[in-house]
Amino acid sequence: MPLPPAPTKRAALLSPDAHDAPARSSHRGSRRSGESRTDSASSNGSQPLELFDRHAADAVGGGTEAAPPMRARSKTAPSRGQRQQPTARQESEAPPPAVQVSAPQQIAAASQAPARPKRSKSNGPAKLFVLDTNVLLHDPMCLFRFEEHDIFLPMIVLEELDGHKKGTTEVARNGRQTSRTLDALAAAQDADIGKGLKLDTTGHREAGGKLFFQTAPLDYSLPISLPQGKADNQILGVVHALRDLYANDQPGRPKQEVVLVSKDINMRVKARALGLAADDYQNDKTLEDGDLLYAGSLALPADFWTRQSKTVESWQSGSNTFYRVSGPLVPNLYINQFVYFEAPGEPSMYARVTEIRDKTAVFKTLKDYSSGKNAVWGVNTRNREQNFAMNLLMDPEVDFVTLTGTAGTGKTLMALASGLTQVLDDRRYTEIIMTRATVSVGEDIGFLPGTEEEKMGPWMGALDDNLEFLAKGDGGGAGEWGRAATNELIRSRIKVKSMNFMRGRTFLNKYVIIDEAQNLTPKQMKTLITRAGPGTKIICMGNLAQIDTPYLTEGSSGLTFAVDKFKGWPHGGHITLARGERSRLADFASDVL
């Protein structure tokens, strides 16, 4: 039975307070805007109808461009809302189905999307960013990362970009990708380089600015101590000229702040010395501060059980105990995050979050790998974080594991021990594939002879050291011949691969270890992770305090990128190893050096 048309009459004729009530209760974020509209409605008798029309316009238009003209007309001609009153009454006499479909949709659309008009309004005037060549070579998609701001490319930048397009390196690939992007923008329909190329013509709707090329010589004067022929100084001269050019409002060209964006620290220092605004390219950073990185574990407060005692449910399944808890801590939890409770005089509890539903979370107790009966290939965990990591490494439902920590925390040893157990004993995977970023700490020693594995041999010293320890511990009293046979068996199941030949491959039922992952860029990390096929498990590990790749920091490393993007995924896990177990000398050196 169709509903009566009463809601339409009430929406058009009720008092302002009653009319605003559904908008305030339907969406939490629109409460403040609803109160401000109520205040304005109390001072103008025709405001309720104006509000209804505004909701209708926003819902029908679906965008933010049509809303401001509607509001402008309503404010300049308040009598227009009075003229629309008979129209609203006539519409209420229409057949109920048509009215019931349109009015609730208009009100719901207006209440559910209060943030769209706010996003279109910038905090200030649009800026003009002058990009250095290294920014384009670092991120070929940087042209679309500046939202509503404009971008300017000096001619010398295009010359340098052309000089870097040859080769098979990552820089050369980025240079070619940038050139193709610029060509697509220039070839778009109705593109006019003189007036600026719209950055959203190739489908990147988040870019609302324009791209300007240097089409005419610019007059500038730099100190005589800066050589005029150097490319960096020419870019500084262009920024200097643009700053003077856009310092004041002119017909057809508003005043804009000109900012140089460069990955070169010395370039930014010289710009600031000349009084020019300069900034680093920040969009490649996953986190502003490395201390904000997801740790993978959380300490429960001391009063956790006393506060939650009324809402805790527990049950037993096999050797594991499950707890279902609720409370203010649940919204801050992630799937596969480890929680622990340690208090003097009370039993400790170590668990992993296995389910988050509404306002409740389920904790599952862990397997204790510090016990001798649960040793993994002769390796026992020595601290809390290592036990967390081993639970992730031995779980067949976890396909992606990231381990971070300082030197000597046991990342490589635990990854190899769990891999050998699952390859040789459990037959869960067919073999172990190990790779790492070949970035030198010091000077490069040149080309290395031999096959792929022989070339990777000098980079895999950590593998050899840990395999020697594992083979020695597993051999027991087998003697020299037994240890040799164990070594041969282990070596036959471990393949060392170079990252240079990973593209296009698919790993089936493999246990892949990516060592020194902190030296990978986010793009390289994506290339490696997407090689995983059915039944493959990938372990990424590294020390974010030892990054050797130029232009990479803790915030922009591929390892940081992977940790942040995979947190909360049901088949991925991360843990930060806190305490070193290599030796007292190594632990002391990590702290004081």
TrEMBL record:
Alphabetical UniProt keywords: ATP-binding, Nucleotide-binding
Domain of life per record: Bacteria
One Pfam family of this chain: PhoH
Family: In the N-terminal section; belongs to the PINc/VapC protein family.
SUPFAM superfamilies tied to this protein: P-loop containing nucleoside triphosphate hydrolases, PIN domain-like
Bias (Low complexity): 99-115
The protein, known as: PhoH-like protein
Region annotation (Disordered) ranges: 1-125
InterPro entries registered for this protein in UniProt: P-loop_NTPase, PhoH, PhoH2-like, PIN-like_dom_sf, PIN_dom
Gene name per UniProt: ybeZ2
Annotated ranges, domain PIN: 127-269
Keyword ATP-binding among record annotations: yes
Ranges of Polar residues composition bias in the record: 76-89
